[in-house]
Design goal:
The protein is an alpha/beta fold. It is about 45% helix and about 15% strand. The structure holds NADP nicotinamide-adenine-dinucleotide phosphate (NAP).
Length: about 250
């Protein structure tokens, strides 16, 4: 069945791969991005080439007004949402906590925690069946860092993803009775540009020997799990946190 979905951070990496797979199912996708318009336009074109519809939507998930506007823009273009991928997230250069500035910590938690909560709240407001919504699926992007802790590298990021796991557990119980399934995915080392944004472009390959499957994952391998959780194929899965880590 055709769906309207919103993917925060849908223009690059894992979000982009999910948008293209959704396009392949004929779905309509709100492709949110933070600033790189060229990448967002390229992803929209790729979704359309795959057979779906898409619209690029500029906005920062850490800003309430932007989050409301990105839901509005998707619904204006394609009608009521039935799926949301809470995917936008950032890392910062590897560092022990003792050397992290308050500015870095503030941005990390504003984007990865506050932003994810604002997106989840907007999903609850619009999709809940007791508020006139038609129910649906919320997929949260956590990280294997939530259980590994990322010492000396980014305990701030790891903690922000721990919050995503806890939010997923709570919201699956809060929103399940209101027609929304809530699940999370913990990707492991995935080959995207997020590592370059943290100053270590080769990180996924450098650490691949720690992965039982012996290689980094691809964005599409995570995206396939996102599509599974959005679709009716996972109709009885709620409150799950699925590792996509090659066994790490
Ligand atoms: P990525 O390649 O760096 O892409 C990030 C995407 O998020 C881009 O579309 C970017 O838009 C957007 N974005 C960044 N900050 C934003 C903000 N404040 N508001 C809205 N959009 C924003 O990242 P990725 O590797 O695909 O990661 C996606 C998710 O998976 C993240 O939550 C990440 O923590 C999680 N994850 C990734 C890995 C991995 O190894 N890659 C592992 C575990 C978990 P612009 O292009 O406009 O900047």
């Amino acid at each position: 069945m055709s769906q309207t979905i919103l993917i925060t951070g849908g223009s690059r990496g894992i979000g982009r791969a999910a948008a293209i797979l959704a396009g392949g199912r004929g779905w309509s996708v709100g492709v949110n991005y933070a600033g790189n318009e060229q990448a967002a336009r390229a992803t929209v074109a790729a979704v359309e080439a795959a057979g779906g519809k898409a619209v690029p939507i500029l906005g920062d998930v850490a800003k309430e007004a932007d989050v409301i506007a990105m839901f509005d823009a998707t619904e204006k273009a394609f009608g009521p949402l039935s799926g949301v991928v809470n995917n936008a997230g950032i890392v910062a250069p590897g560092s022990p906590l003792a050397d992290m500035s308050a500015e870095r910590l503030t941005r990390m938690f504003n984007v990865n925690v506050l932003g994810a909560y604002l997106v989840a709240r907007e999903t609850a407001r619009r999709l809940s069946t007791d508020r006139g919504g038609k129910g649906g699926s919320l997929v949260n992007l956590s990280s294997a860092a939530a259980r590994l802790g990322s010492p000396n590298e980014y305990v701030d990021y790891a903690g922000s993803k721990g919050a995503i796991d806890t939010m997923t557990v709570g919201l699956s119980k809060e929103l399940g009775p209101r027609g929304i399934r809530v699940n999370a995915i913990r990707p492991g080392l995935i080959d995207t540009e997020i590592h370059a944004s943290g100053g270590a472009p080769d990180r996924a390959f450098r650490l691949a020997n720690m992965v039982p499957l012996g290689r980094p994952g691809t964005a599409e391998e995570v995206a396939r799990t996102i599509l599974f959780l959005l679709s009716d194929e996972s109709s009885y899965i709620n409150g799950a946190i699925i590792d996509v880590t090659g066994g790490r």
